[in-house]
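Question (not urgent): is this output format expected?
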Amino acid sequence: MFRTRDSTSAMIIFSDSNDDMGIVFTLEGLTQAGIIFIIAIAIIVTNILIIATFLNFRGPSEVINCYLLSLAVADLLCGLLVVPLSVYPAVVREWVYGDIVCRLVGYLEVTLWAVTVYTFMWISVDRYLAVRKPLRYETLQTKTRCQCWMAFTWISAAMLCCPPLLGFNQPVFDKDAYICMLDWGSMAAYSVTLSILVLGPSLITIVYTYTYIFNMLRKLRSGHPFHDKEYATALSENLSNPSHIMSFSLVVAFWVSWTPYIGVKLYEYFTGVKLQVQFLHFGIVWLGFLNSFWKSMILITMSPQFRLALRIFCMTICCRYKGRMQAELIGMEADD
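Got this back:
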């Protein structure tokens, strides 16, 4: 092994004595690989914690937790099957796992992204029904019905995104972000159709439902008169639920994370000019993937029920706190 240093970065070159092949490790590549590795660990750990917390919780829970659990599963799969495969390519600056794995990674990215977008749509519908039909919400939104919707979402997303997996277009290794992505430009008609099917109903539903929710919240705070007192009481109780703001924050965080990537790609597509800034392309891609980590932070900071469930999960691990855990559950039930 020997080291060389140029004007821009340090390089470490490992060479094989049997041939002239060598692997060049740059300081920049090692740093970016380290960033990707940290992102992968953060996504995996936080989403395992979310899933374990929801599955361990035995107290009264909201239906929205079914959707949050689905989001955590999608993020965990991304952290396990997509993100780690970019660590070594970031070091050697090339894809080393073959065309089939590259195609699978591209397919998983799109499928999990579609599942997330659709799940946000169902969450917005759930919050809308809680406000629009507060007296009938519990009969309209049952856990079984929500689980059926999520199963339908996963199956439909997997089927909608499968044509590229079957070989109708080629995967592309992004040498700036060190990740495999599908070449959507070679399938313009399919790409536009998929975008409409995924983004169209989701964005329309999200905008309409949260506009209605915040409008009703404004009316309630301004003292708007409601003729049905029972409805007004149920509406006030539902609007006081922090899940409305928490779910809206999840949606905002998702689009804030991915908007820079979408904006740059649209600019490059319509202008035909690729921005020759490697750090920019690297940053916007992994900022989008960081959304899988921010969800856990939003849940912890904005959901009192999740914080309680998390404390109960931690107490469950420590058996000596079992009595305290049960007392806290009883206290929560009394508050409800």
